Protein 1
Amino acid sequence: MKSKFSIIGTSVHRFDAIDKVTGRAKYAADIQMAGMLQAKLLRSPYPHARVTHIDTRKARKLPGIRAIVSIKDVPKVVQYWFFLRTERKKKQMFIRDSVVRFIGDPVLAVAAEDEKMAEEALSLIHVKYNQLPAVFDPFEALKENGVKIHEGGNIAFHMSREFGDTNQGLKMADFIVENQYITSKQKHASIEPIGTCIADFSPDGRYTVYSSTQLPHWSQMYLAGALGVENNKIRIIKPYTGGAFGGRCGLIHGLEVMCCMLSRKAGKPVMMSFTREEDFTATETRHPMVITMKTGVSRDGILTANSIKLVSDVGGYGTHYIGVIANCLSTAVGLYRCPNICFEATAVYTNKSPAGAMRGYGNPQMNFAQESQMDMLAKAASMDPVEFRIRNYRGLGEIDPVFTHQIRSDGLKECLQKGAKSFGWNKKKANLHAKGTTKRGVGMSIMLHGTGAAKALPDPASAIIMMNADGSVNLVTAAADDGQGNRTVLAQIASEELGISLKKISISNTDTAVTPLDAGTHGSRQTYSGGLAVKKAAAEAKKKIFIAAEKELNVEKKQLAIKDGLVYDTKNSATSIHLSDLMRKLQIEDMSGCNQIIGISSGVAPAMPGYYGANFADVEVDTETGQVRVIKFVAAFDVGKAINPRFVEGQIIGGSIMGIGWALTEELLIKDGRILNGSFSDYRILRTTDIPELESIVVESYEPTGPFGAKGVGEGGSVCAASAIANAIYDATGIRLKKLCLTQEKILEALLQR
Amino acid sequence: MDGFFRPNRYYRPKNIREATQLLSTFGERARIIAGGTDLLVEEPSEIDSIIDLENLNLSFIRKNKEGIDIGATTTINLIDSSPVFSMSPYHVLKEAAQEMATPAIRNMGTIGGNICNASPAADLSVALMVLDTNLKISGFNGTRILPIGDFFKDVNKTSLIDDELLVALHIPLYSGSDVASFLKLKHHQTSIDIAIVNVAVRLSFSEKICEEARIALGAVAKTPIHIKKAETILGGMEINAALIENAAYLAAQESSPIDDVRASASYRKKMVAVLVKRALENCMKGRDEWLKST
Amino acid sequence: MAKVDIKIWVNGEEFGLAVEPHETLLDVLRNRLFLTGTKKGCGKGECGACTVNIDGKSILSCLTLAVKADGKEILTIEGLQNGNNLHPLQEAFIEQGAIQCGFCTPGMIMAAKAILNHHLNPSEAVVRTGLSGNLCRCTGYESIVRAILKANKLRGVD
């Protein structure tokens, strides 16, 4: 069947593919500059202490040491872009004190002629710490009169909402399931460590910063605030980036901020590069949570009430704890139709490494709890788990009571249908046989995740289309590509809207001096929000092209169209002009005009459409060792419209593998505030030989507010994998695991206790 | 010393004598390098000299009527791909080699470097132990032969003295009817891992009787260990399920694992029993197959 | 600090260098020869991003002392293409969508090259084992494995 689109729905190769396969692509650590210094951080060895004295005299005597900045000079960013909205809140974004709040908290930074000298300087610096009592357990941290981590106390955020009457709802239930779920501290572990930054201060007061941040414009604003300069004095350039997954969503005061201050002091460009160990132990992680859920269902499998209490462990500093909790609430009220819900959440500081944004942003944690509950409720009501989801989920036409998102596209039933069929759900449920000490089981789960954050957070997207004199196009956008391929997708959207071949479209680098305001690459938003901005800018350029062509061809502009760079009369295709001729005429030949056609768009998307997903897992459990092996895994996602199907598949598979890792192999282990497994040998992410039989299914439900029907997909894979696997383990063994990571020791212990 | 890995002298001795002379001169301030895969991870700060064994021609695998000789700088991949180790019971070493580290490290790392690093969790060590391997060690004043069972002293400590160098390993000749098995317990859904528990087992038969049994465990004590108690109850017996259970139970009893970031001591102890049982069952299966084929 | 003179061949070109005994091959490639295609992902041999080929074998440059590379022929990602013609592996990676952030890509391709050097028609299992030392956090590996099997076909038998 021939597609009605030229390039939408085609798996074109990514623009930067050749750079990446040849080694030409320059990531931050690959950039060299004349006179560039190397910086290193001195980090606190204590989880909670006041720095009372810093003696750098011996270090300063070393030849080759060019600058030192310390905790006293450098403000810490402790809130995120939500707080940019008002002046009063903006002031709360920064704190400046001499307290260190986690093992690894930066105390000072040194810039030297090379890395070796910087390391030697650190070893000669003497820091006096006045150790303070530390608290590691979030419930301990909640106690009154306990250890205080921040000025305002340990509660970073608290909220409580109720809809309907949960007590009544629970009374009405025929079955109630109540459990406490504990989720783990997961690390992004992108293969390029987080992070490397280069800052170059020029004497006229401008800072050029090479940062792999996912949020270039917000980083620009933070830096301007931290350094006390205007936004236009900060230029953020994003080099090629080696994966992000939310890990580059925080502005790290020890990295970008200190690098800038070092460069200003030294009068030279400064590069700072974190080691892998620093990445694991001192950069943001997923929020570990303790979630208590009490859920009621009627005899015929209809949800009557859900009561949720959540404690989120922020670590020593937080930036995203409000948004993450808001997303948990979104999961609670958005995915299922339930008349009575109460949700109480507390984000609390502890003396551990900070938590921040990570793929799924609170949804995986809530999903683990909620989809485990649903599995048990389905069983209580004697319903097939898939049937139960279909009966209760919030679908097309419905509106959630909190965020009032209207659901305009809903492919969940198709995800479940296709997923179940491909997986062999009915056959497996009936026929899996246990063989001696090996048990088999199947489990499933569903999820819903928002695309972008329109109107919940500042969520701008902008784009500029510049028509060149030969009809080729420069697409200017700040869309940050961390690997997803969004820049290629945006070019596809521009190509389709303009009617110009993809080959004729170039896309700019991400550079805040040149590319217009964008909220960044997070929240599965670039294809949707960025795509809408590109589509609008392209439409505006096209409008201007038609105005010019109308004069040229003497044809009413509403009759005109563009295909393959040819502007033609739809009623008489012989009447046409090549864009190359038209643009050259406008820009160069007509010397009284010299007019370049530019299309511009800037604004916020009209909605925050949710995208659905379903996972099916087939697991084998060795009851003598407790080991679990995922035999087969099916991940089906409704993405509205797959602009580039291969890229969509890449997100589904990559996200699923990260989700399976969170379920079975990944967890940062901490003792007395110290991370014990800060390396790939002990923080295990899946390798080629660990991958189960995996299938990804793309469903297209057509989102009417999205560009060509598209909505998001980036985070989905990581949201419901853990719950599907936990449900499968239950099916195989009768054991309900409620604490991530699902280790073989936990499973064996539970098996032996039975 | 400033605590950094900054050796400033590099030597490539032409022969063993030169190598041991250098070791004797520099003592604890020198380290030997073969593949370098342990040295560059450890990055010891107290050394200022590196002694590279590259030119000593210690990469070889030779089979003769006395058994198999392996040079100390033979890489793991050479061992894995050598037909010498395809046959029973020597394949237990190949099985261990395949479970070690990653492909590139197996290209670079050497058998000598691995066992001299003396990690209690090393994969090759238990396989070499059940094959009753002897080690050829050269020092400035001469050469000695040491059974591998006496080689490991503590975590990362061997019985090599300052001027000594492991030169070669000797595996005695076995009958093709001897069977062996290597099992490595890793974290689930994980193919590349440091062992939680390592088990190697060898059974040598005469007719229906198991004449000799060897059971070695890794990652459950300060060094790889072999379990004499369990070996004794199997030696001279006709192996059956009850004996296997018993041996597995004894092996677990004799192990002394610790809690660490990878696993708990109690889990490790339980897994010793499970893995020893499975390894012995593998051996018996191998034995039955051999009997059928002859 | 006594430097050691070494001679190495990188992508067919000869280099005479004076290196410190503790310098790694990775340091030399990136900082002295400015061949930044080979990446540092962990510095401890656990991620594979620094993979190069020496004598056609997969080698971790972060665990190789530069002095040990003396006299050796090293192939890095920059040396794979022939003028402007991409190697079948590079073509296949692009075609199969086996690249996302691209940071693991050079190491992954060099590990794949080593597999194809040693196996004429590797099975999927052989490919997966050969890549088991190379971590990727973006793709989930499926497209990468497909790419290598495709590259095997593309190169013909030579």
Note: The first helix of chain A runs from residue 17 to 22.
Protein 2
Amino acid sequence: MHQMNLEVNGVSYPVVADASRNLLSVIRTEVGLTGTKEGCDDCECGACMVLLDGQPVNSCSYLAAQAEGRAITTIEGLAEGDELHPIQAKMLELGGVQCGFCTPGMIMSAHALLERTPQPSEEEIRIGLSGNLCRCTGYAKILAAVGEAAVEIR
Amino acid sequence: MTNETPVGGLGHSPIRFDGEAKVTGAARYPADSVPLSALHAKVVFSNQPHARMTSLSIDAAEAIEGVLFVLTAADVPVNEYGLTMFDQPVMIGVRDTGRSAVPADVSRWEADKIAVVVAETAAAAQAGAAAIEVTWEQLPIVADVATARSDDVLVHPEAGSNSYHNLKIRKGDIEAGWNSADVVIEGTYELPYQEHAYLQVEAGTAWIDDKGRITVETGGQWTHEDREQIAHALDLPEESVRVIYAAIGGAFGGKEDMTLQIVLALAAKRLHTEGIDRPVHCAWSREESIVGHHKRHRATIHAKLGATADGMITAVEADVWLDAGAYNYTSNKVLGNAHLSVGGAYEIPNARIDSHAVYTNAVPGGAFRGFGGPQGAFVAETQMNKLAAALDMDPVELRRQNTLRDGSEGISMALLPAGVTLPQVIDACAHAASEPVEAAPFAPIASLPADDRSVVHGRGFAAGYKNVGFSFGFPERCEAEIHLHGDAGDDAPTAAEVFHSGAEVGQGMHQACLQMTAQATGVPLDSVSGTFSDTAHTGDSGSASASRLSWMAGNSILGAAEEAEKAWRDGQRPAIGKFRFTPPPTETLDPETGAGQPNFAYGYMAQSVDVSVDVETGHIRVDRVISTHDVGRAINPQLVKGQVEGAVVQAHGYVMSENLVVEDGRIKNPRLSQYLIPGIGDVPEHVESVILELADPLGPWGVRGMAEMPYITYAPAVVAAVHDATGVWFDEFPLTPSRVLAGIRSS
């Protein structure tokens, strides 16, 4: 067993877990934040996307131990109190959420995109979200929501 | 009560009430509420497409540290289940233990279950699963319909033939139909499987609740049907079983049948018997999900269409073969839908249609958005488009001439239910397609940058219909309960509560229930709340399927509101109204002629699709989709458009890229990296929803069902557009670049 400290959404969590455990399972079961989803456990769907020092990472395929000393941001860390992040608010307003299972990972990818590309073209949004699968919406409303969130953030 | 539209009643698109939890990560899906005390279950598949079990030992598995026990067929009181036929054992065992209509010693599918290991941790359960010792006598594998049709090897000897469900239509005088035809179109179509690929794979937790009920929390499409099947297999009264739905991460028909429900209930019951007061949790991996649940049916359909030189249909013949796989699931009902739709939504004077569901040792076919409609419509609409080309006729005009309309007799020789609006839908779609694109299309991700000289363009059209609600004599019903709150002296209630079981699978059902309750009671939406999808608190609503739930739930809510209003006027506080809605009865089809009234309502749709095809690479880009629907009345226009856009993209995957490989009874590509559903870079450039609101005479506020319709006509419209661009007909898909290129080069 490996003892580690994980900094998730600005809070330090002491965790004891097998060194082989992936970050997704440790966030969900040891830290207890279940907003990050498992859709495939193989980097195929993007539902488990979190940010490591601002960079999007499929947490299913990343060892928890490797995340020590880095700032981990999950979907639970985006809203400021009751104030939704503009990406969250636009996803709701424009109907980018149906079953909602892809939504946390989708929003984390969008967040990383807008951090590095504050004024993305539609093609850049598509590329930024190309690692996140959605089976409900057909993506059009997600695309629109991220585009409008970028405008709002500016 | 007021007749004015309250704020947030019908026709508005307020933010869905369950949305905030979904964007903040607070929503609880079935794998998100695992108590710390929970034990973990592992379902063990047979991994045998066709074999008889000769021995099974769980001793070594139960000896593994952390394993509490292993459940086998011997633990199942009534070892059979199935949504419409009890033809599937809960678990395969050496001897037929328990009561079962189906022999339980034969594995007919690689994902038949042989054991459930319950352990302290998922890892211990996995280790236990690996320690199970089982031997098999191999039986010949019935790989596909072509093999099955000979009946040399029977998948279910008790059924007498692999072709276990067969339907006929004999309408008019087929010989006279061919004699009056100037043109005959004939083709054989091979239609592929499709995997649902909902993002949330199967998971659930079971425990004994405070009233002693075996309680299963999971995701599904019909709480009460899950409960009925659990109770049947466990030989318990339904009242002893409770089913609760957590937030559900997509379903599309794929969660209509049992996966974990019965085995979780068995595990909870065994724990209780042993005095262990702990919940038990099970979650499938993506691979287990793809291997372990049914698919859209692969099908072989041969069809013939005759018409006069001026484009009037004279005759239709079709032979439909659905690969039902190892167990029926809902294949008998899916077959019925394919049977009714394979001729198209047209006036057909003379018809011969024979349709068959066939057992094989492949993955079962079952419910998936459209429910046989997509296979039927692909053939019907491709035949019509070929006819238009053969007659050099406008494909829209051909449909205008032959379309079903009010007063038409349907293919099963019964009048269509009133409110046939296909003529208006066809016209609206054709009109919208002639308009310029509203906004500039998005720039594509040009994975294969096209040489302009090699890119050709085309446009295709398709139209159709889909029944709303369950067919063929099923006892359709939907229950709702409404409570109106307020003080004794209040003229009108200040708050309303609705109790409803309708499954929220992502489509917005619960939001629609609240809006319909606001509309029905006159209580403003922000004072309406709901309790949903828990058999302990909500009545039987029927399934979230067949585009039925808004239509059925709306009628049940209208009835409950009326009852609650009476109680309110009688001074009851809270005023409680309960209502069980039943639509007009339907009929099974006559076994020899197919005559009968199969349905009580329909939705109508038409689609126009523009494509660009790179004839050097075989790469297709869909530039524009006009998806036209009569929804009767849009309860929430944003949710309606969400269904259209989502269905179109799901159908885009079906026709363009999704290719499930099943050989000798085994799925060869059970991963999302090998089975390619559309990503955000793969979708049509521009999807336009054209929404008509022409009331369904029986629909609540005129509402029609609509969630399947945008899926059904998309594939034939794409294939017609590709033909328009290239001159090549594709009778088989997905239209991968290699298939398209081969088609172009061989033409």
Note: The longest strand of chain B covers residues 313-325.
